[in-house]
Amino acid sequence: MTLTVHLFVAETFRDAVDANQLAQAAQAVWEAHGTGAPAACSVEIAADKALRALNARYRGVDAPTDVLSFEDGTPDPETGAVYLGDIAISYPQAARQAARGGHPVAWELCLLVVHGMLHLLGYDHAEPEEKARMWAAQRAVLEALGCPLDPP
Fold first, then answer.
1. Domains of the chain by start residue, with CATH
2. pLDDT digits (tens, 9 = 90+) for 1-13
3. How far apart are the C-alpha atoms of 127 and 32, rounded to whole Å?
């Protein structure tokens, strides 16, 4: 199952981010929960300021957040691959959460990519049953990736 991941990392965080690991995290979700058709998504690793602006604009919350997902679903007219959407992640927020959890920032970034990908695939956590299903899916993918984290 082919997933193309377009990764954009703010210059400030480039040396701290393993692009291959994040692409593998997205691919693992697609392999476990995708349709099997060719697809693509974008992942942006940015600063708190960027996530705060997105959070304010799209959710009406004027505060930074760790991850936001924006579903798309448009097929590429040339290739037919479905563009799943965009995932935006705050590196500083990921670093703070990793410090609180006592695990590597790389694991936290994987969790946030997995979480964002599941949202792009229609998972949600607004209701207890949805949350249980999404958290179980996250846990399974993270364990397979060697990042055994429990979602918050």
1. 3-145 (3.40.390.30)
2. 589 999 999 999 9
3. 22
